[in-house]
User: Which sequence fits this backbone?
């Protein structure tokens, strides 16, 4: 199988591939709409997604310069109010540097494009680059879990290559990049990662290999995952004969990128 | 296409100095969009941040070429140009700047988030206003389906927003142009009253339909310092394609915005404006040319042949002047052929055979062929689908307003929901239950589904009985396997009925995932059914989320209300199909002519179906509104007469045929049908105009056409 030239790789679809080759095939290549419930409790999941959407919007509005009082007036949910106050304590207004919020960047990579959407990019006066990602889940995962996520590999890589290309600087130093997962519900324990040239090269090689592998595969090669527990949290479980009811997710992190308001197709309305 | 493959005129556009504002006009197929795409790439190659480029189009389908090119690996690293419609831009800005605009825009609860209404939720809220008025005798003299009544009232509001006049002027404008009986003025006034009541409700409950979104953007956001600063600093370069298909208010905004852009390229097709019934205004689009420092015209078509060029001219003259005087080039004969048939099935069989011939013997690829019709009905689509599938030819259809509630999968899940919730007292009929069982249970044919329904469905209580007590002989006849599957479904419905509190969209998702898409049930591996149910669930979820935030009905009644409104045709009646991507697939396209024109792509061969149909000519009957009167170019006080109706329809048809021919590069097969789908004989304006050409051909060159 050869993917269309306009196919865009993202942390979400590559994570799908890692979790289950078949899911990637169904979701990204067949673009199959399969309206089963992903995980339970479904109402709580929906509420959390809506709350996450509102929080991301508030942050973006904040960086656009809308007065804080006007934004605070919009909040009626108590939990969101706490998150918002925690965010304000980060005091981004007093930081010196360049800020960009909700920024989409894509790079040519392994014969396709690789894209990342950043909640906040901050470049301070010392030339240090910080990638902030707002994580609005109610549980904070272990650092080890985040290290292995595709997002932790792709976000620093894309920004490194972008800055390098922008400055025509092939020797751009990835060590100037920090990735910070910030949880408004756990404001004092952000999980941050430094980046390095070694990591950059390892990620680049690994991702190139992964994309090459995907593009080379034929339909039957997109096999079901061997970790059947994954299927409890996958909407395609009935199609794959891997169970009936959705699993109860208490620890699993909701991947906000999948439901982000700014991935929402405004024009479709 | 590489830069070197571009024509000199196109290369000149790409190479224009950075700080240039150009108005590029010319006929469809002259290479304007290709030039603009290369201009966009050229800007990015010069180091302009891609995200500072705004590509504005009147309809999403017109932007496919831009989307595809920026997603190729050849594009530079960076952001993406914003590809938007003016409506999309308005909605995006409202979402971002709501906290500073809501109060000034007159919303009663400015601290609540905005509720963007879809067409169907707007119709729902409007229905809540209009239904009591209908009881009082409003719109008594109008024979029109309530849905069409609601859509025309909303259309009036949309026209006021896109043309740029106050909603309280709607009836006055319509009455001034009305040349018929005076009693019609009451209808126009009632339509306006409903529109104004709807607007009031929107302001009270923070609801935003399309018209209000656009008005807020033009009246409040565009004038807000913060929003304007954001827009003018974010977007520094403009590419505005098919400006002639956009609204005058969009042109007004661009006219004001233009001085702030560093560069601009505005593209306009001549002899177009196909969306004029939606408010498109080629006249105001052309006025943008006066604000550009340079005007360029692309005169030559890169698509059509000389004979097709002559056909375009002959058909246009024949439609507008009803005769073909003067010079007439007989090479037109090779550009088209007429194929008469008595009945519809004959023409469908012939087209399929002809398409096979083109694909097999002439090495044509499927996406070089389009079959065009004024309207695409379900039965016609099905007939083509069946015959093409038998021949192994892939097809694809554009049908932008396909009715979701008519999809069998949607009807099935709604019937099952009614069975699960007897508390709603919406008992399904035996017919509905039989169809639902037949479409749900694997191996359950019509006879078995009918037996199950007769024996096990109580229409009095609206519930299903257990399979177990059924006599053994009957169980054997129905088969134990089907009995087991039936029981699984029944028990699941009963169990979830007992829960009773699950929101309808969640209920449908569970039903789909836990039963219908499991092995033993027919939605398993049925991707079309899955897609239809998915869209129903999305519609249902949007309805619930809008209603939960509103105050019209209590939360417990939302599911029942949704089903009732689907049954009445108010909800799930329309949705926009996703055209993106489909147009590129390697398949024969079957499409209404208008949808094809809005996909901005040429085809080598076109089949025009039923050229005698009045559908090519007649505009929709809209007793509550008027697209040409609620228009900026209409002189107020003038009467809309039959002569104007006739002349406008002729001009519109000439525009459509011109647009189609300009998107054809080889040959048009024109099919006439003696008896149409409804069993009538028609001789519409298109066939008459073609006959004029045939008569002329006969006198000039002894033409071979029938």
Assistant:
């Amino acid at each position: 199988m050869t993917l269309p030239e306009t196919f865009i790789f993202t942390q979400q679809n590559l994570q799908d591939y890692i979790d289950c080759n078949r899911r990637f095939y169904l979701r990204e290549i067949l673009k199959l709409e399969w309206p089963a419930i992903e995980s339970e409790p479904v109402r709580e999941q929906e509420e959390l997604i809506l709350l996450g959407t509102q929080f991301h919007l508030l942050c973006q509005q904040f960086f656009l310069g809308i007065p804080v009082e006007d934004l605070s007036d919009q909040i009626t949910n108590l939990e969101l109010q706490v998150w918002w106050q925690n965010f304000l304590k980060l005091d981004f207004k007093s930081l010196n540097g360049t800020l960009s919020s909700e920024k989409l960047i894509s790079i040519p990579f392994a014969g396709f494009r690789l894209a990342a959407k950043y909640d906040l990019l901050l470049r301070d006066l010392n030339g240090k680059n910080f990638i902030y990602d707002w994580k609005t889940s109610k549980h904070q995962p272990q650092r080890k879990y985040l290290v292995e996520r595709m997002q932790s590999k792709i976000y620093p890589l894309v920004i490194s290559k972008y800055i390098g290309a922008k400055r025509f600087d092939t020797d751009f130093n990835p060590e100037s990049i920090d990735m910070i997962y910030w949880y408004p519900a756990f404001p004092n324990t952000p999980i941050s990662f430094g980046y390095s040239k070694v990591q950059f090269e390892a990620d680049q090689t690994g991702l190139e290999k992964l994309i090459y592998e995907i593009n080379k595969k034929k339909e039957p090669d997109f096999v079901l995952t061997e970790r059947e527990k994954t299927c409890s949290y996958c909407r395609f479980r009935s199609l794959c004969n891997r169970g009936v009811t959705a699993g109860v997710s208490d620890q699993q992190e909701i991947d906000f990128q999948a439901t982000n308001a700014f991935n929402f197709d405004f024009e479709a309305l | 296409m590489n830069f070197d493959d571009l024509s000199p005129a196109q290369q000149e556009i790409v190479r224009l100095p950075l700080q240039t504002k150009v108005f590029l006009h010319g006929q469809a197929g002259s290479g304007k969009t290709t030039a603009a795409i290369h201009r966009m790439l050229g800007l990015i190659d010069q180091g302009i941040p891609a995200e500072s480029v705004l590509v504005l189009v009147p309809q999403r389908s017109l932007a496919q070429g831009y989307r595809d090119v920026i997603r190729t690996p050849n594009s530079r690293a960076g952001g993406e140009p914003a590809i938007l419609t003016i409506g999309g831009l308005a909605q995006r800005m409202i979402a971002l700047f709501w906290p500073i605009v809501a109060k000034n825009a007159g919303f009663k609860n400015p601290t609540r988030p905005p509720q963007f209404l879809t067409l169907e939720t707007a119709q729902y809220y409007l229905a809540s206003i209009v239904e009591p008025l209908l009881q009082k005798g409003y719109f008594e003299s109008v024979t029109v389906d309530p849905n069409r009544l609601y859509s025309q009232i909303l259309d009036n509001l949309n026209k006021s927003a896109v043309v740029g006049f106050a909603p309280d002027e709607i009836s006055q404008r319509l009455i001034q142009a009305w040349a018929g009986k005076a009693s019609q003025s009451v209808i126009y006034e009632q339509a306006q009253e409903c529109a104004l009541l709807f607007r009031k409700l929107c302001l009270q409950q923070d609801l935003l339909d399309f018209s209000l979104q656009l008005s807020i953007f033009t009246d409040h956001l565009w004038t807000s310092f913060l929003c304007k600063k954001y827009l003018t600093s974010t977007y520094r370069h403009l590419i505005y394609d098919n400006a002639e298909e956009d609204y005058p208010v969009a042109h007004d905004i661009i006219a004001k915005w233009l001085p702030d852009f560093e560069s601009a390229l505005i593209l306009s097709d001549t002899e177009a404006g196909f969306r004029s019934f939606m408010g498109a205004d080629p006249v105001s689009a052309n006025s943008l040319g006066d604000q550009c420092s340079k005007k360029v015209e692309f005169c030559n078509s890169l698509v059509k042949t000389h004979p097709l060029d002559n056909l375009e001219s002959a058909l246009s003259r024949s439609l507008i002047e009803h005769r073909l005087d003067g010079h007439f080039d007989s090479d037109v004969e090779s550009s088209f052929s007429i194929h008469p048939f008595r009945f519809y099935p004959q023409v469908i069989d012939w087209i399929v055979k002809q398409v096979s011939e083109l694909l097999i013997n002439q090495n044509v690829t499927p996406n070089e062929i389009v079959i065009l019709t004024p309207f695409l009905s379900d039965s016609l689509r099905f007939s083509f689908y069946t015959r093409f599938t038998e021949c192994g030819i892939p097809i694809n259809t554009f049908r932008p307003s396909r009715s979701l509630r008519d999809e069998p999968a949607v009807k099935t899940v709604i019937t099952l929901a009614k069975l699960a919730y007897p508390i709603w007292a919406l008992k399904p009929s035996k017919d509905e239950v039989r169809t639902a069982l037949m479409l749900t249970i694997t191996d359950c044919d019509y006879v078995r589904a009918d037996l199950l329904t007769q024996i096990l469905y109580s229409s009095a209580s609206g519930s299903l009985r257990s399979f177990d007590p059924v006599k053994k002989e009957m169980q054997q006849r129905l088969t134990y396997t089907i009995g087991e599957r039936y029981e699984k479904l029944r028990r699941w419905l009963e169990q979830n009925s007992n829960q009773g509190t699950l929101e309808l969209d969640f209920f449908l998702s569970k039903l789909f995932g836990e039963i219908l898409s499991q092995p033993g049930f027919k939605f398993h591996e049925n991707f079309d059914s899955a897609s239809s149910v998915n869209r129903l669930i999305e519609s249902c979820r949007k309805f619930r989320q809008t209603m939960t935030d509103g105050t019209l009905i209590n939360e417990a009644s939302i599911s029942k209300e949704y089903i009732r409104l689907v049954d009445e045709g108010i909800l799930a009646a329309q949705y926009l199909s996703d055209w993106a991507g489909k147009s590129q697939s390697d398949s024969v396209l079957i499409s209404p002519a208008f949808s094809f024109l809005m996909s901005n792509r040429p085809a080598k061969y076109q089949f025009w179906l039923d050229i005698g149909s009045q559908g090519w000519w007649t505009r929709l009957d809209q007793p509550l509104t008027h697209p040409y009167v609620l228009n900026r170019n209409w002189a107020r006080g003038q009467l809309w007469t039959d002569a104007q109706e006739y002349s406008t329809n002729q001009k519109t048809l000439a525009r459509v045929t011109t647009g189609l021919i300009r998107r054809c590069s080889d040959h048009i097969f024109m099919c006439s049908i003696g008896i149409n789908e409804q069993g009538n004989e028609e001789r519409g304006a298109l066939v008459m105009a073609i006959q004029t050409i045939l008569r002329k051909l006969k006198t000039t060159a002894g033409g071979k056409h029938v």
Observations:
- Chain A touches chain B through 53 residues (CB under 8 Å).
- Strands of chain A lie at 8-10, 39-40, 97-109, 112-124, 129-134, 177-183, 186-194, 247-248.
